[in-house]
Amino acid sequence: MADIFDILGPIMVGPSSSHTAGAVRIGAMARTLLGERVVYADILLHGSFAETGHGHGTDRALVSGLLGMGPADLRIPFAFEEAKKQGLEYTFGEVDLVDAHPNSVVMEIKGESGRQLSMRASSIGGGRIMVNELDGIEVAFDGSFNTLVVHHRDEFGTIAEISRLLSNYRINIANMRLSRHRRGGDALMIIETDQTVEQKIIDWISELHGIEKVTYYDKSREAENED
Question: What predicted TM-score, i.e. pTM, was given to this entire model?
């Protein structure tokens, strides 16, 4: 059954839910996963994002999200001016991706502490998005849940340890997806949860053997941006 969001679309600054609202959400997702203020972004547009994105304001929308705005923020048309005020530098280019959604973008971003993140994502309609790749590893999540992104070595017991830790704090796992480059190599764990994951739990996961990096998407933070 379709909900009201499916019928009417998101509350947003137009003109397009896919090229504008979805693009804002992609930028905001990248900022949230980075976990800090973005100071530089290399943005590569694919497909219709590249062909018609400027006319639809996709470029401004992506920058708006990186600045922490939501889809209904009235500053979106002035995103480039806001970026200059906040010290965000950016470049735009085009990329030809294989078997990618036509509304796709690749972002290489850097935060104020020097932390970096690579993300490929797509705007799939009605303001909805899908994150397709993080730091070179294929993923698939859309921000519907609070999401832990755990970079780790592919070693015995890692999944069990993290699952046990979350269970001890009564955090229910809604979905879990695992990806790896090769057996015993770099791996990525995407854990979507029903409850918010506190910072102390994220810190404990970070300290487990074989864990290389943990990033966290807090769904409530995006909701705050959309108010």
Answer: 0.81
Give yes or no for a contact between 54 and 98, defined as CB atoms under 8 angstroms apart: no
The DSSP code sequence of 160-190 is HHHHHHHHHTTPPEEEEEEEESSTTSEEEEE
Q: Per-residue confidence of the chain (227 residues) as pLDDT tens digits? A: 444 334 334 444 444 556 688 999 999 999 988 989 999 999 999 998 998 877 778 999 999 999 999 888 889 999 999 999 999 999 999 999 999 999 999 999 999 999 999 999 999 988 899 999 988 888 888 888 999 999 999 988 999 999 999 999 999 999 999 887 778 788 889 999 999 999 999 999 999 999 998 989 888 765 555 54
Torsion of CA 116, 122, 125, 127, to 10 degrees: 0
